Amino acid sequence: MLYELAIHAINCQVSKISDQLNQVRTSSPNDLEHIAQLKEKSSAFFMEREGLGAEDEVAAEAILRKYAVDPARVDEALAMIGEFEDGAASD
Length: 91
What we know:
single chain, mainly alpha, 91 residues, 4 helices, elongated
């Protein structure tokens, strides 16, 4: 479950960059430097996503902390995931 959440967190970042890129292309199509910077950021997110292993819970947790809107709530979310997984394992 952590892997899926981490992938979602990265995808949200990609979406934000894509929106910014579309805005720049529309409002300032000649701002090639800014467009290149946004493309570079997007590529970095894609590489981060592709490099994440499905079984690497430490990396997944780090990604959740990195991109969390409220990093203080990550521990709360992780505890809830643990409870969910513990409950599913006992069924």
